[in-house]
């Protein structure tokens, strides 16, 4: 589908997201000849810079994030010719004269406003776009996470942005939904007949979803201290992955059909009580330790840290989806920083065989597992039991692996490449709707309230481990283990 001519205006155009993700993504799409000849990118920042000075900054800050395997000087030069720097104060309505002058008045050109800014600015920027005449029926606005701090602020953002732009013009971005493996999860579930009869409580024991990072907070302490792991990762990324695993088959792949089914999942999540909050939610904070053999400080010793901070860097939760398909199946969600490994994966664990016909006892048979790995090596792994070579009938676990990079030689899109293309095409399937966002906050908010009221601090865990022991106990009470704890020693 060819793209119409567009002007992409990036608020926060000098920021980290723009340099690391957005502009490199636009380079890749330019290299693939997806961009129209006259497409333009306007990078908006507060500092008074000439266009040449800004392009020099791009060369230093954005270009290193483009793989040398795909870097072509001619393509980079072509992209730079599309880019114009606009110096303005996004909070000052008078400053928008500069943006009006920079953008084309042609009604056939699609105007896209990407708000890579703190959410506190979303409403003000949208009002200023409206008062300056830039918020037209042919424009779109992209909202980066976090979309609010709680249900009330999320509703406020939705209401205020909704006064300016219609729902079909608002793209609430979650980059995990742009990952290739998430797309393949949809293909796996709804493009094959193999798993659908088994994708239910009768055959599935439990579901685990993990997003673990070896990194600490780095230079993001100001943001992270006001966010924490629950707002930063669980309320959006983890819940979106849960929705795709648990949703019913949509009637089509159209945006509202898919988002209708995700909304049903969010509304079906078991609600917390004071008792279940204490039993089924674990929060932790990393202390000093070793990651890959390198000593690292604890969270409270990081640069600019509050030495008494109670901000969580780890969350583990047990929940259930109260539907006919999933009743009684536990879903375990886990995310943390300074963990033993960097990975994002979904584990679908099936129930054990009911009876062994072999000489081996049932207890020696491992459950079949389908592992959907999102990063670092995207692929599917199916764990089965198979006979060992030689005399006798002895079974052991084996793994069938589908590595997407090896199976498909075509160049792969990064998440932001796909999502930016969908914004420019006006395709909303991979973006959250307002009611979906609010349903996620509604489910998460009792956890935030509970943490505000209780006196206990987050449970400390050593950097370079898999989090607090309480997270292992959370799943261990059900006779289960996190996947890495169940892996045999090598």
What descriptive keywords fit this protein?
490 residues; alpha/beta; Rossmann fold; Dihydrodipicolinate Reductase, domain 2; 2 domains; nine-stranded mixed beta sheet; six-stranded parallel beta sheet; 15 helices; 17 strands; globular; G6P_DH_C
Q: Helices, strands, pairings?
A:
Layout: E1 6-11, H1 16-31, E2 40-45, H2 51-61, H3 73-82, E3 83-87, H4 96-102, E4 110-115, H5 122-131, E5 139-143, H6 151-164, E6 170-172, H7 180-190, E7 204-212, H8 221-246, H9 255-268, H10 274-280, E8 281-287, E9 289-291, E10 294-296, E11 314-320, E12 330-336, E13 343-350, E14 369-375, E15 379-387, E16 395-403, H11 404-407, H12 415-425, H13 434-453, E17 459-462, H14 469-476, H15 483-486
Parallel strand pairs: 1-2, 1-4, 2-3, 4-5, 5-6, 7-12, 8-17
Antiparallel strand pairs: 7-13, 8-11, 9-10, 11-12, 13-14, 14-15, 15-16
Helix pairs in contact: 1-3, 1-12, 5-6, 6-13, 8-9, 8-13, 9-13
Organism: Glaciimonas immobilis
Binding site for NADP(+): 46, 145
Keywords: Carbohydrate metabolism, Glucose metabolism, NADP, Oxidoreductase
Helix content: 25-40%
Q: What structural class results from the helix and strand content?
A: alpha/beta
Q: For the record, what is the CATH homologous superfamily label of the largest domain?
A: Dihydrodipicolinate Reductase, domain 2
Low-confidence stretches: none
Q: Please, how many domains?
A: 2
Percent in strands: 15-25%
CA-based shape: globular
Number of strands: 17
Structure in words:
The model has no long low-confidence stretch (mean pLDDT 92). By secondary structure, this protein is an alpha/beta fold. The longest helix has 26 residues, at 221-246. Helices cover 35% and strands 21% of the residues. The strands form three sheets. It has a nine-stranded mixed β-sheet, sandwiched between helices. A six-stranded parallel β-sheet has the order 3-2-1-4-5-6. Helix 1 (16-31) packs across helix 3 (73-82), helix 5 packs parallel to helix 6 (151-164) and helix 6 (151-164) packs antiparallel against helix 13. It has two domains: 6-144, Rossmann fold, CATH 3.40.50; 177-413 and 433-486, Dihydrodipicolinate Reductase, domain 2 (2-Layer Sandwich), CATH 3.30.360.10. The protein is built from 15 helices and 17 strands. It has helices at 16-31, 51-61, 73-82, 96-102, 122-131, 151-164, 180-190, 221-246, 255-268, 274-280, 404-407, 415-425, 434-453, 469-476, 483-486, and strands spanning 6-11, 40-45, 83-87, 110-115, 139-143, 170-172, 204-212, 281-287, 289-291, 294-296, 314-320, 330-336, 343-350, 369-375, 379-387, 395-403, 459-462. Belongs to the glucose-6-phosphate dehydrogenase family. It catalyses: D-glucose 6-phosphate + NADP(+) = 6-phospho-D-glucono-1,5-lactone + NADPH + H(+). InterPro entries: G6P_DH, G6P_DH_AS, G6P_DH_C, G6P_DH_NAD-bd, NAD(P)-bd_dom_sf.
């Amino acid at each position: 589908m060819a793209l119409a001519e567009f002007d992409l205006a990036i608020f926060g155009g000098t920021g980290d997201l723009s340099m690391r993700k957005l502009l490199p993504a636009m380079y890749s799409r330019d290299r693939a000849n997806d961009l129209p000849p006259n497409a333009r990118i306007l990078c908006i920042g507060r500092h008074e810079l000439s266009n040449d000075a800004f392009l020099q900054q791009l060369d230093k800050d954005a270009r290193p994030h483009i793989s040398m395997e795909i870097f072509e000087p001619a393509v980079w030069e072509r992209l730079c010719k599309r880019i114009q720097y606009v110096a303005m104060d996004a909070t000052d309505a008078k400053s928008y004269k500069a943006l009006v002058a920079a953008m084309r008045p042609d009604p056939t050109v699609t105007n896209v406003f990407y708000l890579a800014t703190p959410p506190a600015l979303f409403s003000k920027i949208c009002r200023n776009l409206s008062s300056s005449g830039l918020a037209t029926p042919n424009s779109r606005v992209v909202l980066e996470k976090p979309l609010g701090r709680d249900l009330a602020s999320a509703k406020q953002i939705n209401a205020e942005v909704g006064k300016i732009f219609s729902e079909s013009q608002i793209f609430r971005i979650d980059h995990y939904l742009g990952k290739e493996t998430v797309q393949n999860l949809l293909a796996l579930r709804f493009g094959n007949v193999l798993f659908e009869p088994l994708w239910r409580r009768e055959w599935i024991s439990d579901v685990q979803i993990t997003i673990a990072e070896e990194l600490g907070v780095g230079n993001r302490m100001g943001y992270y201290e006001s966010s924490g792991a629950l707002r930063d990762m669980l309320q959006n990324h983890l819940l979106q992955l849960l929705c795709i695993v648990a949703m019913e088959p949509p009637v089509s792949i159209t945006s509202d059909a898919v988002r209708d089914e995700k909304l049903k999942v969010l509304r079906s999540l078991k609600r917390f009580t004071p008792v279940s909050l204490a039993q089924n939610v674990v929060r932790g904070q990393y202390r000093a330790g070793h990651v890959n053999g390198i000593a690292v400080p604890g969270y409270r010793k990081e640069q600019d840290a509050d030495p008494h901070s109670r901000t969580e860097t780890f969350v583990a939760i047990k929940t259930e989806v109260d539907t006919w398909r999933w009743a009684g199946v536990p879903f375990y969600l886990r995310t943390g920083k300074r963990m033993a490994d960097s990975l994002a994966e979904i584990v679908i664990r099936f129930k054990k065989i009911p009876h062994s016909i072999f000489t081996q006892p049932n207890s020696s048979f491992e459950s079949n597992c389908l592992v959907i790995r999102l990063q670092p090596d995207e692929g599917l792994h199916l764990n089965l039991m198979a006979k060992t070579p030689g005399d006798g009938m002895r079974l052991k676990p084996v793994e069938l692996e589908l590595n997407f990079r090896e199976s498909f030689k075509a160049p792969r899109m990064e998440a932001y490449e796909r999502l930016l293309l969908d914004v420019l095409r006006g395709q909303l399937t991979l973006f959250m709707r307002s009611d979906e966002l609010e349903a996620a906050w509604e489910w998460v908010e009792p956890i935030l309230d509970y943490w505000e009221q209780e006196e206990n601090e987050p449970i400390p865990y050593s950097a370079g481990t898999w989090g607090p022991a309480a997270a292992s106990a959370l799943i261990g009470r059900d006779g289960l283990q996190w996947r890495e704890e169940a892996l045999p020693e090598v």
